[in-house]
Design goal:
The protein is α/β, with parallel strands linked by helices. The protein has two domains: 10-256, Aspartate Aminotransferase, domain 2 (3-Layer(aba) Sandwich), CATH 3.40.640.10; 261-392, Aspartate Aminotransferase, domain 1. It contains 14 helices and twelve strands. The strands form two sheets. The protein has a seven-stranded mixed sheet, sandwiched between helices. A five-stranded mixed sheet has the order 8-9-12-11-10. Strand 2 (105-109), helix 5 (114-123) and strand 3 form a beta-alpha-beta unit. Helix 1 (10-16) packs antiparallel against helix 3 (64-77). It is globular and about 75 Å long. The N and C termini lie far apart (58 Å). The structure holds pyridoxal-5'-phosphate (PLP).
C-alpha cells in the first residue's frame, strides 16, 4: 500500500504522499540540495538526455525534493500532474503564457491580485494577446466577453482582497462551450477548502508562499492540471525558461503541507470568531467573510467551498485616516502585505497591494480608503480579538 493511494483521506496524503526515501531510509523527506547529477557512464548520460532512462539531469528540469513536493500537491489536489515554480507569480504567468500565442484572447475577472492584473492587462498585450476584464460574479459578462479566439479564462476565488466568490463550475462551463480553458488561482481558498479541478477548471495555481508554507519563510508556486495540460502547456516552458522552485524551498513547502490542514482549520475558526465579534461594531461599516450567510455570494460559497476563510475583510469608519489609525494602534497583529502566515497580519490594500490600480478601478472593486484585510494567524483567538477591539477604539 502506497501512502499516495487515493484510498487515504486528504489529511493523510498531506503527510505521506510523494515521499521518496533514499538508501538511508530517513523518516523526514531528504533535502537534495544539488544543481546536477552524475552518470555512471557516457552512455547513461546519453540515455537520460534521450529520455530512454528515467532519472534526474539538472535541477532546473527536476529535482528529487521538488518532485516529492509536486507529487504531494498533486495527490492532495486530485490532479494528475504538478509543476513547482519559484513564486506564485511565476505559476500564474506560466499557466497563462504557456497556453497563449499572438492573436489569442483572454477573459479574466477584474478582481485580481495586482501583479496578476499586470500580467493580463499590461504584459500579455505586448505579445499580441488581448484581454477583456469582467465582473467575475456576473456570468452574463463572462458569456458576453467570449470571442472565437478566446483561449483561456482566469479568475481567483475568493478574490484578493474583497473576498468575492466566483462560481467556478459555471465559468468553466462558459469557457468550455467557447472552446477555452479555465485557470483558477486558488490561493485564498487553499486546497483544503476548494477543488477547482473537480469543479471543471483545467488548471489550478497557488502561491505556496501563503498557506502552504504557512510560516512566512519561502516564496513558491505550483501549477496543477491533467498530465496533458501540463505536458502541452507547462513542462517545456518551465524547463527552458527556468522559473523552477529551489530544492530548499520545496523542502520547506513539504514540511508546510504536513501541517496545512491543522493550521488552516484553526486559522479559519479564528477568522470566523473575529468576524462574529466585529459584525455589530459601530466602527465597522462593512464586513465580508465567506463563511457568513450575509456574504453577497453566500450560496455560491456554500456550493463550492468546504470551509470559510483564514481572512476577514472590513471597512472601518474614517476613511484612510481611520484605517491608518487602526493599523498603527494594533500591538499583536502586524502590518504586512502578506497573508496565510502563522502570525496575524493586517493589510491596507488601497495603499499597498492594490496601490497600482486607478482610483476608479479600486472603487469598482470595493477597495475603499477605509478597507482592510486581516489574515488570521495561529495566536490565541481571544488575543487577536482583544488586539482588534483595542485598535478599533483608536479609530
Ligand atoms: C491571489 C494571489 N495570487 C498570486 C500571488 C502571487 O504570489 P507570490 O507572491 O508567491 O508570487 C499572490 C500574492 O500575494 C496572491 O495573493
Amino acid at each position: 500500500m502506497s501512502p499516495t493511494d487515493r484510498q487515504y483521506r486528504p489529511e493523510t496524503r498531506l503527510v505521506h504522499a510523494g515521499t521518496m526515501r533514499s538508501q538511508f531510509g530517513e523518516t523526514s523527506e531528504a533535502l537534495f540540495l544539488t544543481q546536477g547529477y552524475v552518470y555512471d557512464s557516457a552512455a547513461q548520460a546519453e540515455r537520460r538526455f534521450n529520455n530512454e532512462e528515467p532519472g534526474f539531469q539538472y535541477s532546473r528540469f527536476a529535482n528529487p525534493t521538488v518532485a516529492m513536493f509536486e507529487q504531494r500537491m498533486a495527490a492532495f489536489e486530485g490532479a494528475e500532474a504538478a509543476r513547482a515554480t519559484a513564486t506564485g507569480m511565476a505559476a500564474v504567468t506560466l499557466s497563462l503564457v504557456g497556453q497563449l500565442k499572438a492573436g489569442d484572447h483572454v477573459v479574466a475577472s477584474k478582481a485580481l491580485f495586482g501583479s496578476c492584473l499586470y500580467v493580463v492587462e499590461d504584459y500579455l498585450p505586448r505579445f499580441g494577446v488581448e484581454s477583456t476584464l469582467v465582473d467575475g460574479t456576473d456570468l452574463d459578462q463572462w458569456r458576453a466577453a467570449m470571442r472565437p479566439n478566446t483561449k483561456t479564462c482566469f479568475l481567483e476565488s475568493p478574490t484578493n482582497p474583497t473576498l468575492e466568490i466566483i462560481d467556478i463550475a459555471a465559468v468553466a462551463e462558459i469557457a468550455h462551450a467557447a472552446g477555452a480553458t479555465l485557470v483558477v488561482d486558488n490561493v485564498f481558498a487553499t486546497p483544503l477548502f476548494q477543488s477547482p479541478l473537480a469543479l471543471g477548471a483545467d488548471c489550478v495555481v497557488y502561491s505556496t508562499t501563503k498557506h502552504i508554507d504557512g510560516q512566512g519563510r519561502c516564496l513558491g508556486g505550483v501549477i496543477l492540471g491533467s498530465e496533458k495540460f501540463i505536458q502541452d502547456n507547462i513542462h517545456t516552458l518551465l524547463r527552458q525558461t527556468g522559473p523552477s522552485m529551489s530544492p530548499f524551498n520545496a523542502w520547506v513547502m513539504l514540511k508546510g503541507l504536513e501541517t496545512l490542514a491543522v493550521r488552516v482549520r484553526r486559522q479559519t475558526d479564528t477568522a470566523a470568531t473575529v468576524a462574529v465579534a466585529l459584525a455589530d461594531n459601530p466602527k465597522i461599516k462593512r464586513l465580508i467573510y465567506p463563511g457568513r450567510p450575509d456574504h453577497p455570494q453566500a450560496a455560491v460559497a456554500q456550493k463550492q467551498m468546504r470551509g470559510g476563510s483564514t481572512l476577514v475583510a472590513f471597512e472601518v469608519t474614517g476613511g484612510k485616516a481611520g484605517a491608518f489609525r487602526f493599523q498603527d494602534a494594533l500591538r499583536l497583529v502586524r502590518i504586512s502585505n502578506n497573508l496565510g502566515d502563522a502570525k496575524s497580519l493586517i493589510t491596507h490594500p488601497a495603499t499597498t497591494t492594490h496601490q497600482r490600480l486607478k482610483p476608479e478601478q479600486r472603487a469598482a472593486l470595493g477597495i475603499t480608503d477605509g478597507f482592510l484585510r486581516l489574515s488570521c494567524g495561529l495566536e490565541h483567538p481571544d488575543d487577536i480579538c482583544e488586539d482588534v477591539f483595542a485598535a478599533l477604539a483608536a479609530v
